[in-house]
Records
---
Amino acid sequence: MHSLLDHLKLLIIGGNLMLGAAMVVYLHQTRHRYRLAPLRPIGVHLVLYNLAVLALFVYKYYELNVEGSALVFSPAPRHVVLLMIAYGFFMGFSYASLAIYLAFTEQQVSRRLRRWVILASVLLLAGIPLWLLFPQGSVGRLVHYHFYENFGVIFLVLELGLMIALPIRAGRLQDPERVRVIRAFSFLYISRYPVIAGLTLLPQPFRLMLALAYPNVVPYLWLRFFMLPHDERVVSREAMKADVERIEGHYGLSPREREILGLILAGKSNRDMEESLFISYHTVKNHVSNIYRKLGVKTRFELLHLVAKSDPGKRVG
């Protein structure tokens, strides 16, 4: 006789499947809108995770509603089936993590590596049913059991190793803001393990609910608070740069005035420009005054507003 808590757990797993489906759709739409390369392997990882949750849902439903019927597997075949499913997900997660790492570092999975991964996966999965060929209690079955029971740790170490190496590799990039975005993803990705481990202190069913939901929420948190704001700032800077180039050409700024305009838009003060350009403070003020006069503005605020909203073709120089 199963308790109400068992059925509540099944309901929680089903609810997380719906959450996972929503997150997969959100990630898919975001990838098509922003064309961000890492979102594809991240989406694959998320799909695999929710397939694993689906497998858990089917297993729990089977356990609650079909147990004791003629459809129940005998222990040995059931062990083999569950182990093959588990290893299939292990390999899928590891491959997706590798693809995420390469996407962030602007690389691709080579065909040769893909072939080796497929071959190794087929051989590893094909070796699992061999367990049935060994007699009960034999040395062969014991060795087979310990090999497959412990080999899965390698996939966990591989995933963690890639996510630890990612921020180290990202440190070579020239864009500090992009480095922060990559490191944020790595931190959130790795945080799943201590967070889920910490949830063991909570009572059921809250432990199960939060443990299943957190991996689905991690990509959303990263996109919402790190990746998309960074992408919008990059697009804004490119648009600002294009507007500045149009303004420079339209208002006839000199090379030095163009240089000072760029520094003004970068937030530099007159004293900062004096030091970086090795010119006197009075000369800086003269250049700034000339820029204001040519653009028809009186303050830096008006200048920034002009650049942000500029359409020089409709203005009178």
---
Amino acid sequence: MTRVTLDAQLRSRLLDLTQPLDLCDESGRVLGTFRPLAPERGGYVEPPLSAEDWQRREQGPGHTTQEVIDYLEKL
């Protein structure tokens, strides 16, 4: 992995982020996404699900753990 060291000014702008941030060049082309760490969770901040995503998940067929295991064993 490549590592870039930020100067104090840019670092201070990134410290309070709670959501992913697109990093762009001068023309607006997205170069990558910065995902701030959530120290209390020890990992990345995940984007929230939209209402449509929650509805889709709730209305989906769903599977028991055993059904998933059985399916994976057949692969």
---
Amino acid sequence: MHQLTRILTAALCLTSFLTIAQAADKETVLYRFDHASGGSGPANGLYMDQSGNLFGLGLSGVFFELSPNGSGGWNYSELLASDCSYPTGPLVRDQAGNFYAANFFGTVYQFSPSASGGWNESLVYDINSGLSGAGPSNLLVDAAGNVYGINGANGANGLGYVFQLSPNSSGGWSLTDLHDFNGTDGDASPSGMTASGILGGLTMDASGNLYGVTYAGGSNSTCGSKCGVVFRLTNKSGIWTETVLHTFNGTDGSGPDAAMLLDAAGNLFGTTAGGGASGFGVVFEISLVSGKPLTHVIHSFTNANGDGAYPQAALIMDASGNLYGSTTSGGESFNCSVEQDNGCGTVFKLSPVGQQWKESLLHAFKGNGDGGFPSGVVLGTNGNLYGDGFTGGIFSQGVVFEIKP
């Protein structure tokens, strides 16, 4: 699995703000995938609708739904055996109810509800004509139905670009190149990454500005392909202008490859897959102070005492301002390993305490019945967290889980 092939850069000292609090373990497996039902999967995250139904894609392209059955259990439905194998991120949904996803081979697909109650799959755009390992990233869809992402191949400088896909008058889709990376302002190309091919997606504010990350690039030479950047794209009359908000230096993180969270106050929260105090990644915040971006690390992962390692999924925030996320590795289980490090992954919570943050470990996966290698979580209206684990379950085909914080 490409999530597990990340080569991470070790970094220098940085102290995490507060120690880890071990929380009571309240994980429940909702569904275990097998070859006979649901195929192999799931992969790269879930989407939850307002009714609490969960939608996802399996590694083989199976489009599935898990729905509460009213008796405390869940019903699994295979909606479609799609062509979107090896998806690069969770499904996103437009206001008309259509889902979108991209895959590792550079293709974007749409899943639309049919008049008969089923689902139809259609090809939106073949960005890379079957070239694998170059993106695109997980997607973003705006209120007008435009789809945005980062492509790791091509671009004017060969370092990737930010794109927009828009429905056209002929019934197809048109691609617009919004910004080409030049290295100093970001590098999304496979040459600047590892074999994983994971690209962080985009976030949009109320004014239509886009925020994103690139795994490599920037102006700091501490990392081999530079340590990555956070950028903003501002649209004025159809002209997009990029501003680099932060260049990582290893000490404050390296290799960001997940979409960021934008809170109501305009602060950005994100993760890096490497760097920090121990080289196992960080959670960072970027806030505007007197109009200038200020970046600080709010947690540095240690892969020790149950702490996680290598966060590679977007964060979510509850109404109280608590952050939730997952790490690909860590948790001290010896049933899984990433590179030379043990651990099947964790789900964690970060709570603001004054000007500091306190980490609570919500669950450390064992890699067997409870799953392993989680790819992010979503927050239900009941306050519970839902996510998928790439491994574990029946014949290690993966699970969907619930955690009560």
---
Amino acid sequence: MIGLGIFVSWASGASEASQLASAFTTRVVADGGTVESKACLTAELTYLTNNPVAPDFTGLLNDYSGASAAYSLRLLDNTYSGNAVRVRRASDNTEQDIGFANNQLDTTSLETFCSGTDGFVAIWYDQSGNAANAAQATASKQPQIVSSGTSLGYIQNLTTSLDQLLKSSFSYTNANPFSAFMVVQNFGDAVFGGTSSGSDYYAVGTGAIGSAQSGMNSVSYYGNGSSIGATRGDIRTATSSFAELTTLATPASTREMWLGYFNGFNSVRMQEYIVYDNQTVSRTGVETNIIDHYNF
């Protein structure tokens, strides 16, 4: 027992500080916001100060801060209070924000909203704090996330034309080498992430695809933490199933960032994309977090 009749069980498995914080809140609420003893209050607050309650969840961005843009179907930051995606249902074109449940996309709310119909992503929200949301206002160009009321578990581009791209407000600049971390599966030729200039589209992870070679300089690629080749075939092989793909590159000039597929290449499935406008972030640290989470 610690002050004010609050009991702590050392055999419960929960930390003392966590138990005390919960019990203290319950006790004060029950007392109508009053305390019975200032001496006990002082002792308990001192204990809580010296034994802070650890957060129940620590996200990738908590461990590796400084991302310029971060999109995921999982929660990446324990301080982020926004939503994951904004979804349009095909039945009546109504849109709704879908958040997180247990630090993952709230598929229950998603499937309830899209019951019996398809769902498409209008906005993929940026969790970096930079408000670099990736959006597509044209309904016919939005990638799919629900099929006949069932969550796909990923965001899927569908055609081979320059459609269904989510455009981010973040731009790569030629002054800054960047690090891009992706969770993607191709079911064709394309991979995740891209830049554009005029009518040309550049896949971030595919510097050897057509004119993309001139769009990126000094490109290095890693699949599930291991160095891979720089050709389209190498990257296509590495992402034949869902995998972690890392790109370290420098744009040849300033480029907008798009999420999707490019120049007639086939479709891609996306779960996560995080970009740092630098190459100082721990590549192996971020990769390990992703690989462990997705069990690659």
